[in-house]
Amino acid sequence: MRIGFIGGNGHHYLKHLLGDQDLNFEIAVASDGYDTLAAQSVAQRLSGAQWFDSPTALFDEFAPDVVNIGAVYGHNGEIAATALERDISVVTDKPAAATWAQLERLRELTANNLRLLLTEFPFRSQSEFRAARQAVLNGEIGEVVLATAQKSYRFGAKRPEWYGRREDYAGTLLWVASHGIDVVRFCTGVPFSRVIGVDGNIARPEYTEMEDHVVALFALQNGGNAVVHADFLRPSGAPTHGDDRLRIAGTKGVVEVQKDRCVLITADGERDITDSVEVRPIPRELLAILNGEPSEFYSTAESLAIAEILLKARDATDSSSWSNLL
């Protein structure tokens, strides 16, 4: 398999396959056209990678079977479209689409169901969240009433200056809160019906168009509700870069995810159910799909669906007005 890696600001989960001696890959790296130094840093860490100055040069000269995009966030969608136009499968970091125009183009290019667009949402491949999902599906907490998700990051001493431009950064809702929004939808199995949100920037005003926190409120189709909040306010002295949490309360019980574990609480008591499920790491899950294996966890349809939800949620937050999601 020939894999092209684009950009230097994403997770590039497929790179974790490269050390497997049972797999054979040819690899290349290209600048995304917006942050070449970051992409060059990726190339230097990937032994044997060919270098290209632009995505189109990589697509046309290297001819990859799949491209793994981790560009400056607001431009993933345009690069994904350029790859899909050449019938190259795409695995991309979020957001898969940072504008409505990008999303419409991706929809057009995948309308025949022959082109593959997968978005990297790693929570779907982590045992603690998969266990929470399975408990809900098994009816162990009854009907979902309230879900709360948290995504908190350390900001560090500084971030790239383009974080301060919405056109490039795309927004904290699309970059950080997207994990919580996706995992609520994934674990509850209950569709969102509408959304509203608020955000602000108090701690990092020098990044003028960036939000240091965002809160989104979702009404669920069954009458329940969900809250997702994300921030860059985790102190530098915190033991981990991120603090990810999920709580789903139902009519019969609660599931909670915190510190990489999932706990189920019912009338019978509390127990850790993290190890009750088996999962494949996200690189292996994505590779299986690229090789033609069907998946209930990642698909082109799921990528497009969550991309639409995220754009509507960002619009609703920008305008402080409800947006319908059904």
How many strand elements? 15
Q: What average pLDDT do the residues reach?
A: 97
Write down the secondary-structure element order. EEHEHEHEHEHEHHEEEEEEEHHE
Count of individual helical segments: 9
Count of discrete domains: 2
Q: Can you tell me the CATH superfamily of the largest domain? A: Dihydrodipicolinate Reductase, domain 2
In words, what does this structure look like?
With about 325 residues, this protein is of the alpha/beta class. The chain folds into 2 domains: about 1-120, NAD(P)-binding Rossmann-like Domain (Rossmann fold); about 120-280, Dihydrodipicolinate Reductase, domain 2. Helices cover about 30% and strands about 25% of the residues. The chain contains 9 helices and 15 strands. The chain has helices spanning about 35-45, 55-60, 75-85, 100-110, 125-135, 165-170, 170-190, 280-290, 300-320; strands spanning about 1-5, 25-30, 50, 65-70, 90, 115-120, 145-155, 190-200, 215-220, 225-235, 240-250, 255-260, 260-265, 270, 325. The strands form 2 sheets. A 9-stranded mixed sheet has the order 14-13-12-11-7-10-9-8-15. Strand 9 (about 215-220) and strand 10 (about 225-235) form a beta hairpin. Helix 3 (about 75-85) runs parallel beside helix 4 (about 100-110), helix 4 packs antiparallel against helix 9 (about 300-320) and helix 7 (about 170-190) crosses helix 9 (about 300-320). The longest helix has 20 residues, at about 300-320. The mean pLDDT is about 95.
